[in-house]
Amino acid sequence: MRRVEHIMGFPISLLIEDEGTTAEAAEPAFDWLREVDARFSPFRADSEVSRLDRGELAPHELSPDLTEVLGLCEEYRVATGGAFDVRLPGRGLDPCAMVKGWAVQRAADQLAERGARRLCLNAGGDVVVTGGPWRVGVRHPERADRLCAVLEVGDGAVATSARYERGDHILDGRTGRPATGLLSLTVVAGSLTEADATATAAFAMGVEGIEWAASREGCEVFAVDAERKVHRTRGLPVAATT
Question: What is the pLDDT of residue 212?
């Protein structure tokens, strides 16, 4: 079963390779992602995030989901010494860097709970898979028609932060300026919550973020710095060549 929808500003594609699976089986997961977009988008004036940013909601009035997300954001802010920060001066509250991976991982978990055994959920290039092995390509940071690595993942997630799609959009919260020390950084982890947030946070830190991400339990890293030097951890699950 294959399905693609455009939610949260990027395409989300789902592939389930279980016999007999119908499109209706995926509906609750896509409903959840649409709900997250409505509730967490800083670009919607009526979202919970926007209402909190305007001071219309007190901390005790927040939903458990937003409380969880903001808690994760604070954990990463502290862990990176402020490089990962969803409350930058002069900008509104924007937890999108955390919400994407968290929400897509929750959707994958819901599908698994409903019986999906072999699935690949791809959210704008960041993927969560189960029932592998699955092969996941890492795009070359300067050549859209090339891969610089192919990974093999059974159950887990792969996320990449880079400059090639949206330019210098990731800011270093310590300086408020664009992070330019890396061309791309990919993280393999047990969940997309961890992989996506770690990739974004490490990219914001610049070259020092490579070692920081690699030191996190359960994370493997592939990175290309601004000098085009490749870095990768020993445990990176590189697919065998055939």
Answer: 98
Q: Residue 220 — φ and ψ, nearest 5°?
A: -115, 150
The token pair at 63 is 């939903």
Q: What is the pLDDT of residue 167?
A: 66
Cα 50 off chain centre by: 21
Q: What pTM did the predictor assign? A: 0.94
| Side-chain half-sphere CA neighbours of 161 within 13 A | 34
Q: What is the pLDDT of residue 1?
A: 86
- Contact yes or no for 218/194 (Cβ under 8 A): yes
Length of the chain: 242
SS (H, E, C) the chain: CEEEEEECCEEEEEEECCCCCCHHHHHHHHHHHHHHHHHHCCCCCCCHHHHHHCCCCCHHHCCHHHHHHHHHHHHHHHHCCCCCCCCCCCCCCCCHHHHHHHHHHHHHHHHHHCCCCCEEEEECCEEEEECCCEEEEEECCCCCCCEEEEEEECCEEEEEEECCCCCCCCEECCCCEECCCEEEEEEEECCHHHHHHHHHHHHHHCCHHHHHHHCCCCCEEEEEECCCCEEECCCCCECCCC
Contact 219, 188 (CB under 8 A): yes
The per-residue pLDDT for 242 is 61
Phi, psi of 68 (to 5 degrees): -65, -45
Listed in sequence order, the residues at least 6 apart from 169 whose beta carbon sits closer than 8 Å to its beta carbon are 163, 178
Low-confidence spans in the chain with pLDDT less than 50: none
